[in-house]
């Protein structure tokens, strides 16, 4: 069977040959290799022979692989701790939903909101898309009103009331 070798060495299931294939499992689990070690093994990988042709006996370390994944060409692949956990179907779905939701301005799916606009502002890119309050352009002396609003919000939160929602202005997206 061979899968019991992944259990701890003192696990009682390793000795239960009557429940499995009639043999003890004396082998230890294989040594865990890092991505760099696997990349080093696969550097000299030759293409697989066409189907139907006999292959020469593979080297002992390479006999566990039949093909070399294209992901090994990615520069960061060898440093991932769990590279096999990428799920292409869900990644594709999430990227498509984000793009379509943003481009079609779907309320539940769009990634284009005040928080995203503030992220652009904090990074310092795309100034035409930065978010701001509706009357940020006015240079009136309304600073006292802002302080009063903040104090009122703080007091209402202390009393258990919800703070009033501040509307933010997001300038329209630039045309593509």
From TrEMBL:
Residues 16-38, 125-164 are annotated as: Disordered. Residues 125-135 have a biased composition (Basic and acidic residues). It comes from the Eukaryota. Residues 136-153 have a biased composition (Acidic residues). This is Uncharacterized protein.
């Amino acid at each position: 069977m061979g899968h019991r070798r992944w259990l701890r060495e003192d696990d009682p299931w390793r000795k239960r040959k009557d429940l499995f294939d009639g043999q003890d499992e004396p082998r230890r689990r294989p040594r865990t290799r890092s991505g760099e070690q696997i990349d080093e093994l696969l550097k000299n990988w030759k293409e697989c022979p066409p189907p139907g042709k006999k292959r020469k006996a593979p080297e002992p370390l390479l006999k566990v692989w039949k093909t070399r994944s294209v992901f090994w060409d990615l520069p960061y692949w060898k440093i991932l701790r769990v590279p096999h956990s990428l799920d292409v179907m869900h990644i594709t779905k999430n990227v498509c939903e984000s793009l379509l939701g943003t481009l079609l301005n779907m309320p539940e799916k769009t990634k284009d909101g005040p928080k995203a606009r503030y992220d652009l502002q904090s990074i310092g890119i795309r100034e035409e898309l930065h978010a701001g309050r509706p009357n940020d352009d006015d240079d009136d002396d309304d600073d006292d009103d802002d302080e009063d609003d903040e104090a009122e919000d703080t007091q209402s939160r202390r009393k258990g009331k919800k703070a009033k929602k501040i509307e933010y202005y997001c300038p329209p997206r630039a045309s593509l």
